[in-house]
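User: Could you check the structure of this?
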Amino acid sequence: MANPSKIPRVDAPGPGELQGFVHSVSPVKISARNKYFNVIFQVSRDQYHRGVVFTADKHRQFERAAYTCTPVGLSNIRKTSGLGQDFNIQVHHGSTLEVTEVDVGMKPPPDSQVLKIGKVAAKVIFLQTSSEVVNAFGANLENEECWTADDTGKIRLLLYDDLIPRVLLGHSYKFRCISTADKGGLHLTTTRSTTVEEIPAIEVPEAFSFTEAPAEVIFRTKGLVSGVERQERRTCSRCRQTQTAFDCKSLNHRCQSCRLLQKTVLFPAKVSGTVVLTSGSTDVHLTLTITVLREFLECNQLSHLLQDVQSIEEYLLNTPQLLVEHNDANMVTSMRLGTEVSGS
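Assistant: Sure, the predicted structure tokens are below.
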């Protein structure tokens, strides 16, 4: 690829906007005049454009879009001449990257390095202190990062959804059906087929010994729930595919992927969303993950509400008070009934 500072600007057809998927985010590089990094941007099933991003503070956004397979829209970009009729793209400080919807599915570039792995046995040496909700594989999923190690080395592993509460810091596990990705650095990621089995402790070199994650600043807010916006997702327990249309009142449902007709209870609901907590005259908008919600319902003997998502909204809206702990990104880390805490 040409030196990014010498690529000529051309008038490519259409406005300076593109929609698609981000691939192959490089580490930040330093030239004589600025910092930049490279990406590959997919705009259709088999069409890709090389890109240069001239603002290092966008690196995390592009990495996240690539890791989570999230469709994004790039606006206010520059299109520059490439080989033949192709063009490259330049992203600068005035460019924006936003989540969007596209009609094409994500497909890694032909030269990307993705490898399916049968099983890996490793010890968890680092675990992110709180999860987040990301758009991945066409759905909103709970995501948490950890690092694993064995006697040969260590590597980052991304956990999704139901696997998050099953993985603990300092414990050893056998992970089956995971895959590798090489987007800004080689890492492992769980898939819809991943299973986790705890195994006897694995000894790792002292250099890889587990460390506590840096302490997060946690805020406590007590108040009334004045608004709830839920996001519900149903997946097939056999093929793990997300269902785009689902009638929870029906006794049976036919999976839209494997086409098997199954009982509705075999498509468990995974709920996340936003809760508006009113404390005094202040409204706090908080993101609620399925892990925190499940723990809250189990502690209050309300697990059955997970079968009727609307009843969860109604229950929260009619709860006298909630005591919520959250980080500075307003991700809820725990919550309980405000009546359980006196003097708060």
